[in-house]
C-alpha cells in the first residue's frame, strides 16, 4: 500500500485529473443508460406500444440531470488534456473517445427535443387501449423543460467535442540535451582551377666573413612586375615574398595571406582586394 501511495503521489497533476475525469465519464455513461431504460418503463402499459412510441416516450420522460456525471467527467478530462496530460500514452485515444461520446450525447439531446415536440403537438403517445395521453398543462411544462435542457446540454456537449484536442503536443525538449548541430552550408560549385602561383625565387644571401654570426637575406632591389590580370592571391604572394617574408610582422602578414586566399576561394573579390591593400601597408 505504501508503494502504491508513493506511485500515485508521483503521478503529475494533469494526468491524475485526466484519469479522474475519464472515470467520471464512464460512470456517467452507465448512469445515463440506466436512466433511459427507467424512463421507458416508468409509464404503465408502455410495453404494449410500438418500439418507436416507446422510444419517444422514453425521451419524453428522460431528464437531463441524469447526465451530470457524464458532463462533469467530460469537462474535467477536457481540462486535463488541455494542460498536457499524457495518460501513459493514451491521451489521444481518451480524447477521441470523449469527443465521440460527447457527439453522441448531443444527438440524444437533439432527439429529445424532437420527440418532446412531437408528443406535445399530438397530446400523447400510441393509439388504442395502450395510448398514453397528457393534459395540456403537463404537455406545456414538460415540453419547455425538455427543449430548454436538451438544447442547452446539447450545445455544451457539442462545444466540448469540438474543442477536445485530437492529438497531444510532444513534451518540450530537455534543455540539458545537446542541441542539434546546425546544417552545413551547401557545397560551393566547382570553379576552374586557378593558375599556380609563380615560383618563389629566394633572394641571394650575403654571408659575413665570420661564420659564427647569423646570416640575413638581402631583399631583391628590383621587384618583379605582375601581369595586369593577376589575382589578389598572386599579388599577396608577391608582396609577402618581396617585403614581408623576413619582416618582424611576417606572422601577421602570413595570416592576411591566408584570409586573402579564403576570400578569393569564396568568391568575395572585393574583400580580397581590400585585404591585399592592407597587406601592402604593413
What does this structure look like?
- With 282 residues, the protein is mainly alpha-helical.
- The chain has 2 domains: 2-163; 205-280, no CATH class.
- The protein has 9 helices and 4 strands; from the N terminus they run H-H-H-H-H-E-E-H-E-E-H-H-H.
- It has helices at 2-10, 13-41, 51-61, 68-82, 91-122, 136-163, 232-244, 250-265, 269-280; strands spanning 124-125, 132-133, 205-206, 216-217.
- Strands 1-2 form a two-stranded antiparallel sheet. The protein has a two-stranded antiparallel ribbon with strand order 3-4.
- A hairpin with a 6-residue loop joins strand 1 and strand 2.
- Helix 7 packs parallel to helix 9 (269-280).
- The protein is rod-shaped and about 125 Å long.
- It starts with a helix and ends with a helix.
- The model is unreliable at 203-222 (pLDDT under 50).
DSSP summary: helix tally: 9
Structural class: mainly alpha
Overall helicity: 55-70%
Q: Return the string of H and E elements.
A: HHHHHEEHEEHHH
The overall number of domains is: 2
Shape: rod-shaped
Beta fraction = under 5%
Secondary structure tally: strands: 4
The termini sit apart by: 82 Å
Largest beta-sheet details:
2 strands, antiparallel
Average pLDDT works out at 76
Which regions are unreliable across 5 or more consecutive residues at pLDDT < 50?
Answer: 203-222
- C-alpha Rg (nearest Å): 45 Å
Neighbour order of strands in the largest sheet: 1-2
Question: What's the gist of this structure?
Answer:
The protein is an all-alpha fold. It contains 9 helices and 4 strands. Helix 2 (13-41) packs antiparallel against helix 4, helix 7 runs parallel beside helix 9 (269-280) and helix 8 (250-265) packs antiparallel against helix 9.
